[in-house]
Specification:
Layout lengths: L5 E4 L5 H6 L3 E4 L9 H4 L4 E4 L6 H12 L5 E7 L9 E2 L11 H10 L5 E7 L1 E3 L14 E2 L8 E3 H14 L5 E4 L7 H11 L6 E2 L9 E2 L2 H6 L15
Parallel strand pairs: 1-2, 3-4, 4-6, 5-12, 6-10, 7-9, 8-11
Helix pairs in contact: 3-4
């Protein structure tokens, strides 16, 4: 027997699109939660992937969640919670920025007592419509060009989320980035060349600050091998 899946959008115009893929659609806006939120939350598992840093909005959502039947949450966060420390960073190192609103939001979800929450910190998203060869318009400089990139293909994002739900891996924090970390100069030059557009312009920034995000934990616990492990081999 399959699962009943609900999906939310902030746009009325996308409701038909969601219906076409056989999910029950809802209009949900973190900025102003409406009366249909409790119906939406009539589920066992909630996957939250909202590109917002509205701490108060998430606080309001959590109040609704606490009154719902939600048992488990998967919250999609970002490796931007980490500061540049010029080293490889894992989940247990404590290198998160205390000023990061995303870290504050993560902690709001971890503090919900009755619900098990897993945090996935994705690197920069690439794949399909997010073609890195088109990220930089002509005249826009790429700063810190010799720092390393921390990116992940959309296929890997979806597969990792699926594995967490299927294997019921809750109460964890996972970094999720491709295995390789070329420099911005290397990666964006190749990405541009692969689609026949000029390479972006790179700013000579002198000293380089960087971070390399380790995904060893998610690979070990989920027994996961990245579908797009080598960023320099991805075809766009």
């Amino acid at each position: 027997m399959g699962n009943c899946v609900k999906a939310s959008t902030t746009s009325e115009s996308r409701l038909q699109e969601l219906t076409s893929i056989k999910v029950e659609p809802f209009v949900i806006d973190i900025e102003r939660l409406s009366g249909n939120i409790q119906t939406f939350l009539q589920s066992n598992i909630l996957i939250i992937n909202i590109p917002s840093k509205n701490i108060n909005g998430f606080g309001d959502l959590i109040e609704k969640i606490e009154k719902s039947e939600i048992e488990k949450i998967l919250f999609v966060s970002s490796t931007s919670v980490y500061e540049d420390r010029n080293k490889t960073i894992s989940e247990s190192d404590g290198d998160e920025s205390a000023l990061s609103p995303l870290l504050t939001i993560e902690n709001l979800f971890r503090d919900i007592g009755k619900i098990k929450t897993t945090i996935v910190r994705f690197g920069g998203l690439i794949g399909y419509s997010r073609n890195p060869g088109k990220f930089f318009r002509k005249g826009r400089l790429v700063h810190n060009p010799d720092s390393n990139v921390n990116l992940i293909h959309r296929d890997d994002c979806i597969e990792i989320i699926s594995r967490i739900v299927e294997k019921e891996v809750w109460g964890e924090v996972f970094n999720c980035c491709a295995d390789t970390h070329p420099t911005k100069r290397e990666f964006y030059t190749q990405a541009a060349e692969s689609i026949g557009v000029p390479a972006p312009e790179f700013a000579d920034s002198g000293a380089t600050s960087f971070k390399i995000i380790s995904s060893q934990k998610v690979k070990q616990i989920l027994n996961y091998q990245f579908l797009h492990a080598d960023l320099m081999k991805i075809k766009f």
